[in-house]
Amino acid sequence: MKFEEVVGQDDIKSKLVAQINSGKISHAVLFAGNEGTGGLPIALALSQFLVCEKRNNTAASDGGLFGAPAPEEQIVLNDSCGICPACLKAQKLIHPDIHFTFPAIKKDTNSAGISSEYITEWRQAVAHFPYMNQNEWMQSINAENKQGNINVGECKEIIRQISLKSFESAYKIQIVWMAETLKETGNVLLKLIEEPPVNTIFIFVVEQIDLMLTTVLSRTQIIKLPPVSVNAIENYLQSEKNIVAKDANKIARVADGNVRMALQLTELQTNEFQGILQQWFSTSARLLGSAKAEASVTLGQITEVFQKMGRENQKGFLLYAGWILREILMISQNLGSEKLQDAELDFATKVATKINVEKAKEINMLLNQASYHIERNSNPKITFFSLSFKLCHIFNA
Question: Can you give the pTM of this predicted structure?
Answer without folding.
Answer: 0.78
